[in-house]
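#random but structural
TW: two for the price of one
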Amino acid sequence: MKVIKDEELLVTELQLTNFRPKNNLTSTNYPGIAFDCGCGERHTVNDPTLRIISIALPVKFLFECRNKHITFVHMKGFFKIKANCLWTCEGKLYYKTIKDLESNE
């Protein structure tokens, strides 16, 4: 898992991915599948306390956990599904970066 602590690196990661607004793709389709979060805890993908911020294809979720960490998770596999954490950052860094990007547009 890549831990992002720099706004420039986060911008690069965000630009590499074609994020989309949430839609009917939900994490409830993956009961019991867990991932290691940047907050240090292990969360199940269908945990109701996780907030889906955005999605990307194929089957990637940008989650915010109750501990205010943002984690980008890729669901892999067909018969044996696994959640792979691609990167994580603190929520404070994520929201500051998003605000800065929006103000520059």
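TW: number two ↓
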Amino acid sequence: MKLLLNHGNVEEEINNHLKRLRDFSVSEKSKADIDKIAKCVSQIHSYNLNQSNLPLYNSQWDIDLVTESKDCIYKKDIISALKMMSEMEYYTKDAELKFTDKKFLTWDISVVNWQKEYKTGQIGNYVWDIAAIINYVKDSSFSDTFLESYIFYGDRKPTLIAIYTNLYYVQVAEAAMSDNFEDIIPATKEITEQNIFQTELISYETLNRLQILGY
């Protein structure tokens, strides 16, 4: 883990990683390239940014986005689902990291691309970043290689609950920014009415092989 001793150096190092990331397209199917993407993302996540003043992306940011939406008729249900998912996330083994260890987010969901540079970026839970990348690609074979490489190069393994909650956060954020909530309603109803969240973005085989556990 790299210590935040000189913030100017950290900005420069993160920007150097981002330059390498921007050479890659996440639609690339090459396992070698996916491996390099995961390595670069994990390197950026190695920096401790608790003192950063960059915008924070989390479930509360989502709730604020939905609250501010004027035409969302599903506002109450979505906010309820966000609160339920946040409570589930709180009780995972990642909870301490979630609340005390902020990471630079490599993927900018507002422009659907890699972050341009440190000063225009955002921070949040590292699993948010993983979820944002996986959600954009929407390919289980990509998720398989990306997660395996990220776990290999990084110093932590996300739980299933952490991945699923952050996938929902990312999907709600995208819906709020596009002011189109229709696609998020099925998942919202599953959460609020059945207490489940299903996704085909990560295969059972991948979860089993990588031993990504529920909590």
